[in-house]
Specification:
Strands 5-4-12-13-14-11-15-10-7 form a nine-stranded mixed β-sheet, with helices on both faces. A two-stranded antiparallel sheet has the order 1-2. A two-stranded antiparallel ribbon has the order 3-6. It is built from four helices and 15 strands. It has a domain of 172 residues. The protein starts with a strand and ends with a helix. Bound molecules: zinc ion (ZN). The site of zinc ion has 8 residues, from helix 1. Zinc ion (ZN) binds next to helix 1.
């Protein structure tokens, strides 16, 4: 245990191992998972237990974060069990070729999920771990920390997100180091964990028109968009590396 200043709350105290990429979200059992990088040609890193950082924060911050994680993990591991087709105001499901394209997640507390996703992003940005080297939220790292340190949910409003779920392929046993993405020119940061992808807005620009009906905030509902990871850059990268074993 190291005694030093907590990067999140500033208190000094023992530093436990903070989860950067928790294995619990993947639900992959007793096998190693991989952390992929979108940029560069480095091989994926394997982890049996999750990726931890002992330099990041204090015991109180870890306990608070562990509470969020243990709350959301069962929902995210078994998302199909909680998804119900979303219906438009006329009561019609949103479908494509007869398959639901948009769901809501029943029961889950939208505020806790939002806080958890933002906390993971902050940790990935603040950590000096090798797996997240080169990833930074820049000026948004400090803003996000201030918002997360408050218990007021409306401070998280500037960071809404799009939640996507891949339910078809087996490309699930890994994380992708967060990377920058854009929707109609507006900056987002994308975090992929197994078949889950969270695109979090990191911009002063308003949410682009076309995704306003998909966007999630601390005030519910939690909406999930079906996507095919195989058709994305992340999917191609993961598929290639699965094939080559790198
Ligand atoms: Zn702390």
């Amino acid at each position: 245990m190291l005694i030093k200043e907590c990067q999140f709350c500033g208190n000094t105290g023992a530093h436990p191992a903070a989860h950067i990429f928790p294995k619990s979200l993947l639900g992959v059992g007793p096998v190693a998972f991989k952390v992929y990088r979108m940029a560069g040609r480095e091989p994926a890193r394997r982890s049996q237990t999750g990726v931890y950082d002992r330099q990041l924060w204090c015991n109180d911050c870890e306990l608070a974060s562990a509470k969020l994680e243990s709350y959301v993990a069962p929902y995210l591991q078994s998302l199909d069990n909680y998804k119900v087709p979303w219906r438009d105001p006329q009561g019609h499901p949103i479908e494509e070729n007869g398959r639901a394209l948009l769901w809501s997640v029943r029961e889950i507390d939208a505020g806790i999920l939002h806080r958890f996703v933002l906390s993971l992003l902050w940790r990935a940005s603040a950590s000096q771990r090798e797996e997240v080297r080169g990833f930074s939220l820049g000026p948004y790292q400090a803003r996000l920390r201030e918002a997360l340190r408050s218990s007021e949910a409306n401070l998280l409003d500037p960071f809404p997100y799009i939640f996507r779920h891949e339910d078809e392929t087996n490309l699930r046993a890994g994380y992708v180091t967060p990377f920058r993405s854009r929707y109609e020119g507006v900056r987002f940061v994308t975090l992929c964990a197994g078949g889950l992808a969270f695109d979090v807005k990191m911009s002063k620009s308003p949410v682009p028109e076309f995704c306003r009906s998909l966007i999630c905030r601390s005030e519910g509902p939690v909406l999930v968009l079906r996507h095919s990871i195989a058709e994305t850059g992340v999917g191609r990268l993961m598929a290639r590396r699965f094939r080559t074993g790198r």
